[in-house]
Structure formats: structure tokens, C-alpha cells
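ESCALATION

Customer reports they have been waiting on this structure for their group meeting. Please prioritize. Original submission:
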Amino acid sequence: MGTAFWDIWLFLLALIQFGAMVAAAIHALLTKSDERAAAGWLGFILLVPFIGWLVYLVFGINRIQRRARELRGEKQALFLLAPPEHEGRRPREGAMHLPALESLARLGLRILPESFEDGNSLRTLLNGDEAYPAMLDMIARAERSVALSTYIFNNDPVGRRFVDAISDAMARGVRVRLLIDGVGAWYSRPSIIPLLEQRGINYARFLHSFMPWRMPYLNMRNHQKIMVVDGRYGFTGGMNIAEGNLHELGPKKPIRDCHFLVEGPVVAQLMHTFAYEWNFTTDEILEGDDWFPELEPAGDVIARGLPAGPDMGLNPIRWTLLGAVAEAQRNIRIVTPYFIPDATLRTNLSLAAMRGVVVDIVLPEKSNLRFCDWAGTPALEWLTRSGCRVWKTKAPFDHSKMMTVDGVWATIGSANWDDRSLRLNFEFNLECYGETFAQALDALIERRISTARPVSHKELAARTLPARMRDSFFRLASPYL
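Update from on-call: job pushed to the front of the queue and completed.
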């Protein structure tokens, strides 16, 4: 072949390289909201010939949000986050005792137009020893419907108790819908799925595929924990269905956790969230009095649901956390098993501590995912230097998720303080206003702190060089942990 032939091919390759480089650079400019990220990617694309735009194509484009919107876009028109007649409803006049809480409520409605519901009660259930009997008893008393969504449903003594209770309910004519995450269903071996099929239970798996190469959804898990019985009694929190939560069985790896029994008008929002996810997974629409009866007031807590996921432009849970931190006047208390806050959350917590707010962050001494502990340690060094107080609780591993502000505001639910919960997964939290409930959580957190070990900035700064290098390395992966 002549020189002219190769000249043509080299010119075409150079043209392709130039076009791909320009396209990647334009994409980075238009889609990266963080200036540093945009500048970093632009430099890499322009200064590393041939490789730069390829690396950006693989690692630089956020496909999770786009894919989530593609998957769920048609469903969003079927289930609005709030019924039109109640959209944007604020709490009653005088319900908020502090101006800052009025401001937080207004912010909340801008973030998510889910209405605030007055007249709710929430009862804290500690570990599976309190939560599971309450849930099983409610299933046993169900007359019309049971809706249950969970991330993990293990095939163990606890999981089989729930299967028996659900089977008995179905035999009585109760309508049952069971939604299990497609990845969480495989946490136990053997899986609970064959038993569900054997019992004829109406179940579905969220974003599931039998072929591993067709499972591009490891970052879009349904991490919600919701159970609603007869449309009137709700359960939510952070607890999966697994033997480790039931301490009376003496499990090898016990887990400490909190769940909550919810009564009142806000239960309809739990059911609404479940119905949305069930419809997305199965195309079945749940409607009527079996699922959505009229609900009477049951307590003094003002609450609303915060469903969140990667298909939403602003993550309601993350933005609500930011708003609550910004409005705090006296104290912030956070209990979470995984604490890997992004730069914005970390900065806002630091600012709160520096303006005099007492910030307590309660974490397990060792979580069940050690690499998450390592990835979060650099943030703890930053926060303790700013004045935040960090506490590490002794075993068993504490999987609880709760936050309170000023003894009046609280949030509980499935979300952790990490990018996986606040950016990649589908979660559900309750946002609650009420002194009685918030102060009850404060008392629970105080008991955790009373037996915990304080972690000082001096201790964190004195880590060995290998430990600091390990922690910094895992911090790079924090957007996916």
C-alpha cells in the first residue's frame, strides 16, 4: 500500500480523535456541576491523547441517573409524589414552635411537594426482639392487605417465620404483595425465593435478572424498608428481615437496629411509596380501600415521607439533611452505620459546629464493611478538627439510622450517610416534627453515647502512615461505597 493510503488513515484517525475529544470536552462542560470536576476532566481529556476521552467515556459519565430515569420515566406520570388536592400542604399554623422550623418546612416543600400530615404516632422498636413480634402480630391480625418491601429477606428462622405468617394471612383471604430487592434476595444461601414460590406468595424482585451480565443495576437497589397492614399500620426504619437482628436466638453476628411502628395519616405515604415501586416492578396498580382507607389522627407528630432515588434531580433525603443542619440552633445528633459524607455535607456539619451547635456523630466501632470505615475516617479527622464530637459504640454492630435537631425535628428510615444511599439507591425516610418523639430519640441516642468511646482529633491525626494511606485510598471510592 502506498504512502497516500496510510496518510488518509492517519488523517481519519486524527479526525476521529479530535472529534471525540471535543465531544467529551463539551459533555464535561455541560454536565459537571462541580467546577473542580469539570476542570479536572477537561485537562485529562485535552492533555492525554487518545486515552483521555476513552477514560472519560467509561468513568466520567453519570449513567446511573440517566438509566434510572429511562427505566422509571413512564411510571412517574402514574404516581405523583403527593395527591393533587394535598400537594404542598404545610403544617397547621402554630404547629412549629421555632422560626427555624417554619423555614425548614418551607424548604422541604420546595425540595419535594409531599404534604405534611398532622396527627401521627411513632413507636420505637429496638432490635428484632421488639420489631419482629410487632410486625408478625400485625400480619396475624391483618384483615384486608399486607404490603411488605425489604432489601434483605433471608432464608433463616426469622425469614421463615415471616413466610409462615404471610401464608396464613393469604389463607384468610388477605391480599399480600411482597417486594424484595433483586440483589438483597441473594444475601442468604439458599435464597428465600424457592420457598416463596412453593407457598404461592405474591412476590416480586426489584430490578432482577437471572443473567449476571444483564445486571447493570448494582447501583440502583431498592433499599427501602416498608410494611403496611390494612393500609392503617405502617412499619419503617433500617431493619432487614434477618436472624442477626433477633438477639434471643443468639446469632453469631448480632445486629443492633431500630424500627418504628407508624400510625396516622402519614401511613398513606408509606403505602403510596410501596405502590409506586410495586407498579414499577410488576405493572400492577394498587388502589382502593384495601390499600388506601381513610385514616384518623393517632398522635401529635407532624410527618411526611421522603422517597428518594437516582431518578430524581434533587435527592430529597440529602437536601433535607442539608437543610436541617443549616437550621440547627442547639444540637445535631446523628446515628448511622456508614458515615461517608460528601464534601457539601461535611462542610455544613463543620460550619454548624463552628457556630456553636453541638454536633454528635455516633458510629459503630467496627461496621460489617471495614472498607466503609476506612473510607469515612478522613472525614472524621476533618469534622473533629471543626469541633464535631464523634462516638464509637461497642459491639454488637449498630445498624440504626436516625437524626435529631434541637429536640424537635427528627428523621428516621433506610438511608445511610453515604453516596450509595444519597445518590445511587432508592430509599425512604420519614421527616418528623414533634418534641415528644424527637426527645425520645435523643434519650435513646444519649444511652448509646453513655457507653460509647469518644474519638478525638488527636487520635485520628496520629494514625500511622500506612493507615492514612489505606484510608485515603478507599476514600477515592467513596462515591460508590
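Sent to customer with the following note: Residues 77-87, 212-217 have pLDDT under 50 and may be disordered.
Escalation resolved.
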